[in-house]
UniProtKB/TrEMBL annotation:
General function of this protein: May play the central regulatory role in sporulation. It may be an element of the effector pathway responsible for the activation of sporulation genes in response to nutritional stress. Spo0A may act in concert with spo0H (a sigma factor) to control the expression of some genes that are critical to the sporulation process.
Domain OmpR/PhoB-type: from-to ranges: 125-223
Phylogenetic classification of the source organism: Bacteria, Bacillati, Bacillota, Clostridia, Lachnospirales
GO cellular component: cytosol; protein-DNA complex
Gene Ontology MF term list: phosphorelay response regulator activity; transcription cis-regulatory region binding
GO biological process assignments: regulation of DNA-templated transcription
PANTHER family for this protein: ALKALINE PHOSPHATASE SYNTHESIS TRANSCRIPTIONAL REGULATORY PROTEIN PHOP, REGULATOR OF RPOS
Protein name per its UniProtKB record: Stage 0 sporulation protein A homolog
Response regulatory domain ranges (all copies): 3-116
TM stretches of this protein: none
Taxonomy, superkingdom: Bacteria
Residues where 4-aspartylphosphate is found: D52
Source organism (scientific name): Diplocloster agilis
Length: 233
């Protein structure tokens, strides 16, 4: 389920939004000021942010600009400021949509779904996601849960290869061929074994195994279908 951060200082309005978001199948989390919002923003993963403009400890436009410098999480302004210049200012700050008060909650939910669908399709083209792993192909970064995961270039290529071939048994020869790049950087079978072992130790945990050894053949990406103890040979 998508996680939505609702930054709105009107507690009754925030509660009403949370109620309707939850009923629609989202996970809403309220924040009544920017200080709380900043703490939540940096400590958890978010799929969308609903943001008021006038907050007790700051301006929503400025905060949206800060968000956009560090993240591509979608932002929808929810505000009583309905002048054209206010909307322009919101979009210039990086907003994905702008909803004025008073509003119909059904319209808000439709606009949220539209933004999530639009941003989700864009992300799908540049991200590979499985279990608690998220690989950003354009930035060549990996996250495990909410934390960045440091991988060597060879480990990154291995992970990318596995994620792009879920469920398939990849022979050692096929994997070696994919890791031997156009610049002639060579990986032999012994090095492959070591790198798979290192990658497995970094990505697996009590919940996910991810990589299964197929003896005498190669490896299989089992994703989140099998837990530790069920095939991590």
């Amino acid at each position: 389920m998508e996680r939505i951060l609702i930054i709105e200082d009107d507690e009754m309005l925030n509660a009403g939004l949370c109620y309707n978001m939850q009923a629609a199948g989202y996970i809403p989390v309220p924040a009544y000021d920017l200080k709380t919002a900043r703490d939540l923003l940096h400590s958890q993963r978010w799929d969308l942010i609903l943001l008021d403009v006038n907050l007790p400890d700051g301006n929503g436009y400025a905060f949206a600009g800060q968000i956009r410098r560090d993240s591509d999480v979608p932002v929808i302004f929810l505000t009583a400021q309905d002048m054209d210049e206010d909307m322009v200012k919101g979009f210039e700050a990086g907003a994905d949509d702008y909803i004025t008060k008073p509003f119909n909650i059904k319209v808000v939910l439709q606009r949220i779904r539209a933004v999530l669908n639009r941003c989700g399709k864009a992300k799908a083209a540049e991200e590979l996601v499985c279990g608690n792993l998220r690989v950003n192909l354009s930035e060549m970064t990996v996250q495990k849960g909410n934390s960045p995961l440091a991988l060597t270039p060879t480990e990154y290529k291995l992970l990318k290869t596995f994620l792009q071939n879920p469920g398939q048994v990849l022979t050692r020869e096929i994997i070696l061929e994919k890791l031997w790049d156009s610049e002639g950087n060579f990986v032999d079978e012994h090095t492959l074994t070591i790198n798979v072992s290192r990658l497995r130790s970094k990505i697996s945990d009590a919940q996910y195994t991810y990589i299964k050894t197929v003896y005498g053949v190669g490896y299989q990406w089992i994703g989140d279908r099998e837990q530790i103890g069920g095939g991590n040979e």
